[in-house]
Amino acid sequence: MSDPIKNRYEFVILFDVENGNPNGDPDAGNMPRIDPETGYGIVTDVCLKRKIRNYVETVKEDQPGYRIYIKDNVPLNVSDQSAYKALGIDEKKISKKDNPDIDRKIRDYMCSQYYDIRTFGAVMTTFVKAALNCGQVRGPVQIGFARSIDPIVPQEITITRVAITTEEDAQRKGTEMGRKHIVPYALYRAEGFVSANLARRVTGFSEDDLALLWKAIVNMFENDRSAARGKMAVRELIVFRHDSELGNAPAYRLFDTVRVGRKDQSAPPRHYSDYEVEVHTEELPAGVTCTRMT
After folding, report:
1. How confident is the model at residue 142 (pLDDT cuts 50, 70, 90)?
2. Which residues, 6+ apart, have CB-to-CB distance to 75 below 8 Å?
3. In which band, very low, low, confident or very high, does the pLDDT at 127 lie, cut at 50, 70 and 90?
4. Which of 66, 191, 200, 220 is the most buried (most CB within 10 A)?
């Protein structure tokens, strides 16, 4: 792998949904998540990171250094045990007081093997018969909740199906009713951060890892289609690069240069072309450059 990154980054993701549910809320019957005070739609950071993990897992297929720690059908303690086994450590006999470097060795192993730990961090402590402690890692890449540019109007669509649940019901009826929750259209904005300082000191997040992150963000919906989520696409990824490790300006000043607005306020938006995206690069502080990726 390449050396850890040397520059701080901030980024803005613009993605949209058409006739789908981008992130269901289990506390509200799986309706699209919404801010009840303002009506703006919400997509959680966990949802977005799941898409990124899925993309990396798809393109790398568990290659050394690119395994995924948080994944379906793989208990965390199985991955934790793999570190102890690879390093020849017996978790039942080891005493941290006698081995002051054990935490660092196991943590560094997990960072080197798992892309999502190296990127997003993880709490790697499980208790099954014996405690398995692989440490806690604060990842250099953090993503906030996405919020829609305009308030959304979730709709509940009634559907019919011919697949009857039970034999008894099949004798009485030929169809059943169901429901789908959709947003007719919404454009969402998420903001993220990449810390070169944490990459150097903790996880070793590299230039190769960064290039893969950008590729994963741009393509995170392309191989993760679902009928429930409708038509989703990343429309633009706007990346701000500082020429130093600790940065040359506060993140909010960079985010404020990205302005998204409706072209026509008289009709509800139904396509990305209904919006205008401007990046006022003339307002960027010295030492910061901007790249727009689609």
Report:
1. very high
2. 126
3. low
4. 220
* Structure token pair of residue 178: 């169901």
- Which has the higher per-residue pLDDT, 272 or 88? 272
What is the identity of the amino acid at 125?
T
Domain edges within the chain: 9-151+182-293
Residue tagged 């030492």 (tokens): 287
Name the pTM for this structure.
0.92
